[in-house]
Amino acid sequence: MGKPTGFLEFTRELPSKRSVEERVNDYKEFVNRYSDEKLNQQSARCMNCGVPFCHNGCPLGNVIPEFNDAVYNKEWKDAYDILTSTNNFPEFTGRICPAPCESACVLGINQPAIAIEEIEKHIIEIAFEKNFVQPKKINKRTGKKVAVVGSGPAGLAAAAQLNYAGHSVTVFERDDQPGGLLRYGIPDFKLEKWVIDRRVKLMEEEGVTFKCNANVGVNVNVNDLLREYHAIVLAGGSTVPRDLNVPGRELKGVYFAMQFLKQQNKRNANIDPLANAAVESNILAEEVLATGKNVVVIGGGDTGSDCVGTSNRHKAKSVTQFELMPMPPTSRTQFMPWPTYPMTLKTSSSHEEGADRKWAIATKEFIGDENGNLKAIKVVDLEWKSAEDGRPASFVERAGSERIMPCELALLAMGFVNPQYAGLLEQLGVELDERKNVKATEKEYKTNINKVFTAGDMRRGQSLVVWAISEGRECARKVDEFLSGGLSVLETKDQTAAALMF
Ligand SMILES: Cc1cc2nc3c(=O)[nH]c(=O)nc-3n(C[C@H](O)[C@H](O)[C@H](O)COP(=O)(O)OP(=O)(O)OC[C@H]3O[C@@H](n4cnc5c(N)ncnc54)[C@H](O)[C@@H]3O)c2cc1C
Ligand code: SF4
After folding, report:
1. For ligand 2, atom 1, which residue shows the shortest CA distance?
2. How far apart are CA 382 and CA 376, in angstroms?
3. Whose Cα sits closest to atom 39 in ligand 1?
4. Ligand 2 neighbourhood includes 54 CB (under 6 angstroms)
5. Are residues 400 and 266 in the same domain?
6. Best of 5, 53, 500 to mutate for ligand 2, by most ligand atoms within 8 A of CB?
7. Which residues in the chain land under pLDDT 70?
8. What is the distance of C-alpha 428 from the center of its chain?
9. pLDDT at position 281
10. CATH number of the domain residue 351 falls in
11. Ligand 2 midpoint to CA 64 (Å)
């Protein structure tokens, strides 16, 4: 424990951000770094709990009290080693994780939680600055070849771990650059793309091969992969968006969030947003811009919030965000006590930049002009009834609340239902579970097809980057066991934690 009285002396502070007025004019990240003193104080708050609930709250099993202690003592190499023993990509999670570890932090019982996510980001960025992050030398190659399909966080983590185990790994990606939703989905203002390039370069130097514009099941033959590789990891994500089938859905001006967000990621990278439609997904025939429009974002989650931030940067006339559910409470209630994940109101940095958030509202119809362009949206308010556990359970439309709002761009951000079946999955003949995700248990990550494994959103359904990394790592261990015919050289997260904590 760095400083026994730290949690009494200092309160939680997050780093400053660039002002809203400034940051909405560009797509750069806007969270500043802590001063050395502030970083020291924030790590000093950690109580090094006997039972560190933070560790349990993190899907990766990050060994948090130990790295907080190393940061407090300015033992940067130790902090880096501890952090990366369980997390391949802290530079991603340190920027965009919703930090379930912080919701579980013991200090959260009666004080604001430790700023774990920010500490994580500082450790990895300091490690890069101090040149601790070097390509690892792989001493012994096994002669086994593994194909990883999909280069999102799950595919990247599986590839990195399998490479460390000595296998020769090739990652196939249908987009023109690796990264999955980190690259084409999450806006640059949350995660600048040089962060992905830096990691991919390291992985290449460690021996991982990346093949982009390679859509397995379309321009890469599935049977060739089965013939040429000793194992295959399917990490293609959950890419089929939930649609809203109300009258007027076909109008010009109603799009899926990902069609809008991906175009902006491409513009930021100086890539033609309309190019490569033959190979990639979500490519439209026309550019979608929010500039000067009344934008309605339908869906209150992360993706919706990213559409809000991007629309404000496009200089939309107005930005409104709809959520079907009622507004959640601002703090924990009796139904969500610590350390459960609190379903409280989340105000993202994009919301800070301006949006009219409407709760308990449903879209009844998209209304077009004579040329088939969206011009308005018909909505109705909802009245929710809660169940005994406090959760909203059923609703009815509020009589007389139906109205029409001007809207020239509607972005559907209501989540993803399942992975795409046509192509890769269909040709392999993989079995799906009841939610239409690829069927494989969280223990084995193995599909019904011999030597074919799966991880990430493709297996667990739409989720988080931290879960995708965790799945990629766990899946890699199972693939390594399969290839070695026995025990894996890769540790479980419990083994790593036990070695570091005791
Ligand atoms: C807009 C948006 C914002 C988000 N923000 C956050 C956030 O702030 N924090 C957070 O934790 N999570 C966030 N998420 C969720 C998170 O991005 C995902 O849970 C995570 O990326 C899933 O990782 P994955 O590797 O399983 O799949 P993905 O990241 O979806 O990657 C799958 C990859 O596989 C490729 N692929 C698919 N099929 C094939 C094929 N046949 N051949 C070759 N390649 C193929 C795809 O092109 C894609 O690149 C967000 C999601 C979205 C959509
Ligand atoms: S639960 Fe919070 S205070 Fe306790 S060890 Fe983890 S980060 Fe530190």
Report:
1. 105
2. 19
3. 236
4. yes
5. yes
6. 53
7. 502
8. 27
9. 74
10. 3.50.50.60
11. 7
Q: Are residues 409 and 421 in the same domain?
A: no
Q: Is residue 44 part of a domain?
A: yes
Same domain, 262 and 375: yes
CA proximity to 479, closest of 236, 238, 234: 234
- 74: CA distance to ligand 2 center in Å? 18
Which ligand is nearest to the Cα of residue 7, counting in written order? 2
What are 144-166's pLDDT values in tens digits? 999 999 999 999 999 999 999 99
Pull the structure tokens for residue 302: 């992360």
Q: What's the mean per-residue pLDDT of the chain?
A: 95
Statement to judge: residues 224 and 319 lie in one domain: no
Q: Which residue has the tokens 């997260």?
A: 493
The pLDDT value recorded for residue 277 is 72
Of 12, 68, 109, 500, the residue with max ligand 2 atoms within 8 A of its CB, to mutate for a pocket test, comes to 68
d(CA 12, CA 137): 39
| Same structural domain, 123 and 257 | no
Nearest Cα to 471, choosing from 64, 166, 145, 60? 60
In a domain, 481, yes or no: yes
Does some domain include residue 138? no
Ligand 1 pocket test target in 87, 148, 181, 463 with most atoms within 8 Å of CB: 181
User: What's the pLDDT score for residue 502?
Assistant: 63
Using alpha carbons, select from 6, 7, 28 the residue that is nearest to residue 17: 28
- What total number of domains does the chain contain? 3
- Among 384, 414, 444, identify where a domain stops: 414
Same domain, 231 and 355: no
> What one-character DSSP code corresponds to residue 342?
P
Residues 309 and 380 in one domain: yes
DSSP 8-state assignment for residue 389:
T
- Nearest CA owner, ligand 2 atom 4: 49
Q: Whole domain around residue 368: which residue ranges?
A: 243-414
Q: What is the CATH number of the domain that holds 121?
A: 1.10.1060.10
Q: Which of 87, 101, 120, 186 to mutate to test ligand 1, by most ligand atoms within 8 A of the CB atom? A: 186
Query: Is 207 found in the same domain as 105?
Result: no
* pTM of the predicted protein model: 0.97
Contact (Cβ atoms closer than 8 angstroms) between residue 141 and residue 466: no
Residue 494 has a pLDDT of 84
pLDDT tens for 77-116 read: 999 999 999 999 999 999 999 999 999 999 999 999 999 9
* Alpha carbon of 14 to ligand 2 centroid (Å): 17
β-pairing, 403-406 vs 374-386, is: antiparallel
- Of 414, 449, 477, the residue that ends a domain is 414
Ligand 2 centroid distance, CA of 352 (Å): 28
- Residue 436 maps to a domain: yes
Which-ligand-closest: CA of 47? 2
Residues in contact with 425: Cβ distance below 8 Å, sequence separation at least 6, in sequence order = 217, 234, 236, 419, 432, 438
CB of 159 within 6 A of ligand 2: the answer is no
Whether the bond into 326 is cis, omega within 30 of 0? no
